[in-house]
Amino acid sequence: MSVYIQRETRVCEALAEAFARLMPQLSPRLGAPAPEVLERIVFSPCSALFTARIGERIAGVLTLVWYDAPSGRKAWIEDVAVDAALRGRGAGEALVRAALGHAVQIGAERVMLTSSPRREAARALYRKVGFKEAETSVFVCKTDKE
């Protein structure tokens, strides 16, 4: 069965179900985003939410976000998740390639992402499609109260 990539333009029950199933696979501490969060992503002028379908089932998701800075337009790939039961069928690669293609269309000069060293298969995929490890560090400052 082939993989079909779609940029989502609305939030439906199948999309909400997919996020409920996939986010905990990305990280056990993550739950399903509320429908209004998904709507903000889908309808934002600075983001694109892609799904990979195998048959009727959403097998994976990826969000591309972008912004303009004095040094040029940049894009980030966020929250790439492919269902563990459906991995190895090309969904992850198809999602990343779709995001890269969209980044070119919107004029992003570079696309960045982060990936945990323990996610070896994901990191191999990113290298396969042309990503290289940057010689920089990502710093995080959490602004929530937790």
Q: What CATH architecture do you see? A: 3-Layer(aba) Sandwich
Beta percentage is: 25-35%
The CATH superfamily bears the name: Gcn5-related N-acetyltransferase (GNAT)
Major pleated sheet: 5 strands, mixed
N/C terminus separation: 43 Å
Describe this structure in words.
By secondary structure, this protein is α+β, with helices and mostly antiparallel strands. It has a single domain (3-128), classed as Aminopeptidase (3-Layer(aba) Sandwich), CATH 3.40.630.30. It has four helices and five strands, in the order E-H-H-E-E-E-H-E-H. The protein has helices at 13-26, 35-43, 91-105, 120-128, and strands at 3-7, 47-54, 57-69, 72-82, 110-112. It has a five-stranded mixed beta sheet, sandwiched between helices. Strand 3 and strand 4 (72-82) form a beta hairpin. The longest helix is centred in the C-terminal third of the chain and has 15 residues, at 91-105. It starts with a strand and ends in an 18-residue tail after the last helix. The model has no long low-confidence stretch (mean pLDDT 95).
Sequence-ordered SSE layout with sheet pairings:
Layout (H helix, E strand, L loop, with lengths): L2 E5 L5 H14 L8 H9 L3 E8 L2 E13 L2 E11 L8 H15 L4 E3 L7 H9 L18
Parallel strand pairs: 4-5
Antiparallel strand pairs: 1-2, 2-3, 3-4
Keywords, please?
alpha+beta, 27% strand, Aminopeptidase, 32% helix, five-stranded mixed sheet, 146 residues, 4 helices, globular
